[in-house]
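Note to self: keep these together.
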Amino acid sequence: MSNSGRDADLDAIGLLQDPAQRSLYAYVVGQGREVRRNEAAQAVGVQRTLAAFHLDRLAGAGLLDVAYRRLTDRSGPGAGRPAKLYRRPASEHAVSLPPRDYARAASVLADAIERSGAEASLYAAAREQGMADGRALAQSSDGQTLSIDAIARDLAARGYEPYASDCKLRLRNCPFHAVAQAFPVVACGMNLALLEGLLAGGGLGPMYAARLDARPGECCVVIDSKTNVS
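Structure:
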């Protein structure tokens, strides 16, 4: 990343130090759809004009995308102006001080794994790591049986942005998006193995299964109750 790119990312992330902007950003990206100003303002408890100011600042920094669209079927005179809508952008922002290029390292490693045909070894290592994470999570539950809600909270902390849909736990964000775009077999297989291991290590393997079920713009893995899996 160039110095100008790092400076832009620093400026963008710096906006999130403001509590109102951080709350608006978190609300918009957490919906997985386009959000109107009024909705965002009501959700975080700020005035519409203030929400509009903050949302436009976030959009100007590249933290949100903006679209204009009429929300009714009316057209022509009297139909009103198109609504201004905000949603999560496709771009990513990351800052490391001093600069580190982990994404490039991950890309090179994924390329090497694909060339050498070492996917099976990668998946085995990922599953073991996931199991270790699951066991650690279970140990932190103070003797209580680990629940799928605890798994969801852990995944949220890891950046997956889980949400319930059709009795499944879907993942709105892929933490490995950049690598998955270039090396989907390597990255998605690793991701699946990590989550399989997490469920097994947490003692939820008999009840829940991680499986590939890609949706546009979301993580490729879904967690489903085994009662729903034929």
